[in-house]
Amino acid sequence: MSGYKEIDADELHAILATGKVVLVDVRSDAEAAGGIIRGAQHIPLSLLPVKMSELVGDEPLVFYCHSGIRSAQACGFMNSNGRDQVFNLRGGILAWGKAGHPLASKS
Q: Which of 49, 66, 105, 57 has its CA nearest to residue 85?
C-alpha cells in the first residue's frame, strides 16, 4: 500500500485554482525546457534527496513527470521521509496536455 494518492489532471487543475498546493516537476532539465505546468517548481528526481528541505510547510505536495512513473517514485520517497499529503499526477504531463490544460515556459 502506498502512502500517497493519485490524482488526475482535472483534479490537479481544480487544486491549483485554490493556490493551496506545492507543485513539483521532477523531469530532467531538457524535458522541463519544453514547458511546465504554471506554478511548478522544477526539481529533477535525482536532486530530490538533496533538495527535499526546500519542500517544507503544511501545503499538499503534488509531483509530476512525463508519464507518472518518476513522480510516483518522488511521492514514495517523500512519504517514506515523513511527509504527509503527497499526491502523484496520474499520467504525468502527458495526461495534463491530453486533458487540454496549458503549459507555461520554465522561468
A: 57
Specify the CATH number of the domain 5-98. Answer: 3.40.250.10
Residues annotated catalytic, as ranges: 65
The span from the CA of 18 to the CA of 16, in Å, is 5
Calpha distance 97→103 (Å, rounded) = 8
pLDDT value, residue 1:
42
Choose among 49, 51, 59: nearest CA to 18: 59
Closest CA to 99 of 42, 91, 72, 68: 91
Q: What tens digit of pLDDT does each residue of 29-86 get?
A: 999 999 999 999 999 999 999 999 999 888 999 999 999 999 999 999 999 999 999 9
Q: CB 39: neighbour CB atoms within 10 A?
A: 11
